[in-house]
Design goal:
The chain is an all-alpha fold and 223 residues long. It has a domain at 23-170: MetI-like (MetI-like fold), CATH 1.10.3720. Helices cover 80% and strands 0% of the residues. The chain is built from eight helices and no strands. The chain has helices at 7-45, 51-65, 69-79, 89-114, 118-126, 131-161, 173-184, 188-222. Helix 1 packs across helix 4 and helix 1 packs across helix 8.
Length: 223
């Protein structure tokens, strides 16, 4: 038995998958922005001089990093409503992605912050700068550029995790492909196209990260 690619079916489903890819990109971009912000907050809290804050944050980060993302998605979507926190599937999925990858990003930020020479902190203290000013104007601008490649890796990884949102019926690329396949009993074309979509967006994301990294290096070198 020989297999023939159904080009007519491909043309029919391509626009449908294209629309679904918008959902995937939205979940990726918003989820990563959330992860970047949460990760920075976690990293700063783990540098707190208050031991309870530092230890509690570390425990939360390790707990999130040590449990599967799929379980976290289910927990946010199905369990939180039991405590009065109800949200739609897309919001729940993005929140779970943000929390999960925020815990990983926090370790990246922490590595960058730990590499800042102690003299920078001492100089800020000598100049009587506030903690907020020290972080905002001195520490963060130096800590972020070196960790951009690692953050970019998590962006690509997060993008490839979005199919897990299909478990709570978010109509992203993978869920849409499964629906199309179940309707036509032709899975090869939609699944293959989804793979190509993911390959394309992953390559674009990686290229953008390299551009940002190069821009930061140029900017830093010019300074």
């Amino acid at each position: 038995m020989t297999f023939e690619w159904d080009w007519a079916y491909t043309q029919e489903i391509l626009p449908i998958l294209g629309k679904a890819s918008i959902i995937t990109v939205q979940a990726t971009v918003i989820g990563f922005i959330l992860a970047a912000l949460i990760g920075l907050v976690f990293a700063l809290l783990r540098m707190s001089t208050l031991a309870p804050v530092r230890l509690a944050t570390g425990a939360v980060v390790e707990f999130i990093r040590s449990t599967p993302l799929l379980i976290q998605i289910f927990f946010v979507y199905f369990v939180l409503p039991e405590f009065g926190v109800t949200m739609d599937a897309m919001t729940a999925g993005i929140l779970a992605l943000g929390l999960h990858y925020g815990s990983y990003c926090s370790e990246v930020y922490r590595a960058g912050l730990d590499n800042i020479p102690k003299g920078q902190w001492e100089a800020a203290t000598a100049l009587n700068l506030s903690t907020l000013t020290t972080f905002k104007d001195i520490i963060i601008p130096q800590a972020i550029p070196p960790v951009v490649p690692a953050l970019g890796n998590y962006l690509v990884a997060l993008f490839k995790e979005t199919p897990l949102l299909s478990a709570i019926a978010v109509l992203e690329l993978m869920q849409t492909a499964k629906i199309l396949g179940s309707e036509s009993f032709q899975y090869t074309e939609p699944i293959t196209l989804v793979g190509l979509f993911f390959l394309f967006f992953s390559l674009v994301s990686a290229a953008l990260v390299r551009q940002v990294e190069a821009w930061l290096k140029t900017r830093h070198g010019g300074a």
